What does this fold into?
Amino acid sequence: MLKKFDIYIIRKFLTTFFFMLGVIMLLAIVFDISEKLSELIDNKAPILEIFGSYYVNFLIFYGNTFSSMIIFVSVIWFTAKMAQDSEIIPMMFSGRPFTRIMRPYMIAATILMLLSLWLNHFIVPISNQKRLDFEEKYYRDRIVVTNYHAEFPGNVSVYFDNYASDDGIVYGLKIEKWTEDRKLKSYLFAKSATNLPKSKKWILNDYYVRKINPNEEVQDNKVLKDDLKAGVKMDTIFNFQIEDIAIRDNFAETMSYSELKEFIKKERDKGAGNIPTYEIELYRRTSYPFATYVLTLIGVAVSSRKSRGGIGVNIAIGLGFVFIYIFAMKVTTVAAINVGFPAMLAVWLPNFLFGIVGLYLYKIAPK
It folds into this structure.
């Protein structure tokens, strides 16, 4: 059963968090409007859609994304204030163990962690779809893909040099078809290609097709050579369309957990090279909320001691931990994308390492 002491700490925790969240998100909206204003005016975005739809979903996404960091700063702020006002000392001299003082902090952290988990897995994907739809319609309507490579069903390899959605043209398209034992069956190259909207029909320009006869079969006493064909323009059908090969990097943010897992499986079957990016998105939806516990533990440990320099010293220390944590997340993410570091380990490792730091700081904290 919660005591007055627990309710007091939980109330301070939650009110400080939501106050800081509101202030930071308000500033974020101001900066975002200043960046997008000219494009929104040029594209005649309705005011009601801007504030009634886009920025509501903007708040949901970014507020939830940075909630762990805001929780950390909030804990340091109000705990350091309590320490400076000599509220922590009576708690310790009342005979309560430090673990008992930590209890309301962890209750409040659990409330916020569960809220973040619920948002990440159920609300944010739907919200992101609306936010990104608005951006594509009124702000960022251009997709650029370069150096693409993927494997499609039927032992088909697809490559192209670049694609931009504003002209809808794929440049340097190469398609290779292979036998089951990985022998090349045919090779197609087109200097440029266009996919007819909502279909799998393509128009190839300046194309070259080579059908390979690997065994040089003999027919009518003649050795069958490779079949070569070239031309200026050709209509054809592939088993994919432009939406399958040109998607935004943040497309995964609009998928539910089960949809994202299925999408990763399909991309892996295609041999796509950006799978770690999608895996990181999948795993961070759970790992980021759990960082709340780690950051709360560190926040209490570094701010429960009364400092001669005042609250500013505690906040400076806390911000130092925030920057190190963000840096660690960035390093492991880059390692997962570029050098094959396991994606699950990349998103959970910072929590594990900072959890050890938090336990050490908790051990040496004044009791």
